[in-house]
Amino acid sequence: MSSLFSLTEEMMKVVLITGASSGIGRACAVLFAYRGWRVYAAARRTEKLNELKIRGVCPLYLDVTDEKSCEACVGEVVAREGHIDALINAAGYGAYGPIETVPIRDAERQMDVNVYGTVRMIQKTLPHIPKGGRIINLGSAGGRAGTYLGGWYHATKYALEALSDALRRELIDYGINVVLIEPGGVCSSWGRIAADHLEKAGKDSRYEADCDKVAAMYRKVYSEDNRLLTTPMTVARKVYLAAEKEKPRARYLFGFGAKPLVVMNTLLPDGFYDRLMKSIFTSDFTARIVNKMK
Predict the structure, then answer these.
(1) Is 218 a known active-site residue?
(2) 244 vs 57: CA distance, rounded Å
(3) Containing domain of residue 69, as a range?
(4) What is the pTM of this model?
(5) Which of 53, 71, 121, 223 is the most core-located residue (most Cβ within 10 A)?
(6) C-alpha span between 291 and 294 (Å, rounded)
(7) CATH code where residue 49 lies
(8) Considering 153, 158, 218, 252, which one is annotated as catalytic?
(9) How many CB atoms lie within 10 A of CB 269?
(10) What is the number of structural domains in the chain?
(11) CB 215 within 8 A of CB 199
(12) Does an H or E element contain 198, and which?
């Protein structure tokens, strides 16, 4: 029995998930553990990871903006397992606001978490990913089509598109797949965070009225009882598919508003799309529709 147990242990795939304290990252940790993977769930708020222990998940501290923290996190997994079959980069947040008023330090923080943090983890993990392994980046439909007042957030997601494409080509001879997950609106704390940043960035500026309107809309749309939104577990299932499929797609675009947004951005003239986006996010008609969604 002991030899059979050891064999089973050796066959278990190993996944490291960033941003696992909430939302998509947490859902991925739960699903992968349920599916028999050995799961290492990493986040800054490790107290939020403790209840995952009963599912067999191993919590780790990680600050993706800190090089030494990234190195220590990956090092601990490798010391225990010897390799990492899949890295899921789910750490990230949305700081909305007008480009004119968002302080550069806030923009740098957004880039540091969403982009550089992802790259730090890729650089530390790649040497330990065997042939057939995966790097799965949580992008967004917002990485292929921008919305109103989300410039810096969209900049980070557009950057992930380009970096993932480049990395996929660099690894083509090494049998490591790079996959982008591009959900639309997800039921999470993302909307509240975006709304808070919007109101703060727009205060006492010429954008204040629009920022307040869009913030109010996000708070209503991204509520827990909005069934139109994609659930974190639905996104986690796409991530799992990308991790298990022998030949995964380079991109998985799905969820609330994702495909229409990308299609409009691709087919409509730029000027028309620009005005459409502003109108959708600030018009009284949209506000009435949102109010009926509750």
Answers:
(1) no
(2) 19
(3) 2-189+228-263
(4) 0.92
(5) 121
(6) 6
(7) 3.40.50.720
(8) 153
(9) 8
(10) 1
(11) yes
(12) helix 190-202
Cross-sheet strand order for the sheet of 58-61:
58-61, 38-43, 14-17, 86-89, 134-138, 177-183, 251-254
Nearest CA among 94, 95, 73 for reference residue 140 = 94
Domain assignment present for residue 147? The answer is: yes
Q: Is residue 211 part of a domain?
A: no
Average pLDDT over residues 221-242: 91
The candidate with the shortest Cα–Cα distance to 38, out of 81, 88, 82, 90, is: 81
Rounded to an integer, what distance in angstroms lies between the CA atom of residue 192 and that of residue 175? 39
Using one digit for the tens of pLDDT, what is the confidence trace for 141-178?
999 999 999 999 999 999 999 999 999 999 999 999 99
The answer, yes or no, to whether residue 95 has pLDDT greater than 50, is yes
281 located within any domain: no
- Residue 226 tokens read as 């909005």
231 in Cβ contact with 19 (< 8 Å)? no
Residue 139 lies in a domain: yes
- Tell me the two tokens of residue 131: 């042939």
